[in-house]
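Hi, here's the filled form for the chain we discussed.

Project: internal
Contact: R.S.
Residues: 334
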Amino acid sequence: MKPTLAALFLLTIATCFAQSQSPARTAADGAFKPQLIVPGGLILPLYPPTSPLLKHERLHEPENYNSATGGKGPITNVINIHNPSIEVHLATDRSLNGAAVIVAPRGGHKILWVGPEGGDYVPIFNKAGVSTIILRNRLRVDGYEPTTDAVNDALQAIRLVRGHAAEWKLDPAKIGMIGFSAGAELSAPAALFFDEFAKKNGAPDPLANVSARPDFVGVIYPGPTPFTRNPETPIPANVPPSFIACAGSGDRVHALWATDYFTPMLKATVPNLEMHIYGRGGHGVKRTGPDQIPYSTWLDRYMDWFRDLGFLDKPGAETKAARDVAAFAKKAKK
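And the returned structure, exactly as it came back:
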C-alpha cells in the first residue's frame, strides 16, 4: 500500500530532525548560525539580534536539515528557522550586469526546499552574471505567520542586499526576487507592500533608510496572493514589473491564484507584466530529464523577459524597466 501524502510529509519532518547535518552553532550573541546550502556562499542574518521582529527566546534553536542522500549529500530542505537569513552567492563576473535575484523556495510554509528551489539556481544565474541570494524565511510550522513574519523577511532581505550593493559590486537598481509556490506568497506582496513595510520598520533597524522595493519579481506557480484575499488591494504607482508562470489545468488552483495576481495588474495597465500558463504540467516542473515539456522552459522565457527589461545590461545603465516604471508612476499621479 502506498503511503499517504500526510505520512510522507511526517516522514520528511522526522528525517529532518533525525539527520541534522551539523551540531548547533551559535554566534557570540547566542543566535544560531545557519549552515551553507551551497559551498562558497556568505550567510547574513536578516535582523540584528535585538530586533522586535524576532522571537528572542528561540534565536538559539538550531535549524534542522535534510538531504536526499541520508544526511551525507547537499542539503535539500530545512525547518525550524528562528534566525532568518540570506545566503549570498555573488556572480563570478558581476561587471556583466550587477543584477541579483533573491530566491524564495517553496514548501507550503511547512518546510523550505532550499536545494531544488535555491541552491540549484546558483550556477544557472551565475552563467548570466547574476548573483543568487537564497532566502531562509520563517515558517508557519515553526509558529510564524506567513503574511506578516515571512513577508517581512522577504522585504528585509531586499533591504539587506541593497544595503551591501556597493560592497558586493551589485547594481542597487537591479535587485529583485523570485518566489516559488509558498515563496511566491512572499514575492507577490513584496511588489505591493514595500512602502508599508518601510513605514512600520524604521529605526532602530540599521537598514531603515534602505529601500525595500524590489526592482522586479517572479511569481512562479504561486500560492494565494494579496489579490486573492482582496481584489481591491492598492497597486503602488511605482510597482515593479512581474513575471508569472504556472501550469494550467494540471495545477488549476495555483493557476487561478496566478490569474488573481495578473488580472488586476493588467487592468491597471502595469507595464512589463508577463504571464505564461502552460498546457501540460503539474505543480512544479523539472528543467532537465527525459520528460521535457514546454513548461520546463519557463526559465528561458524568464531570462528573455529579464534581458528585454535591461537587467542584463552593464551596471549603472538605466534599465527599460526603470524608465517604464517612472512613466507609469507619473501617469498615475495625474
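Let me know if anything looks off before we file it.
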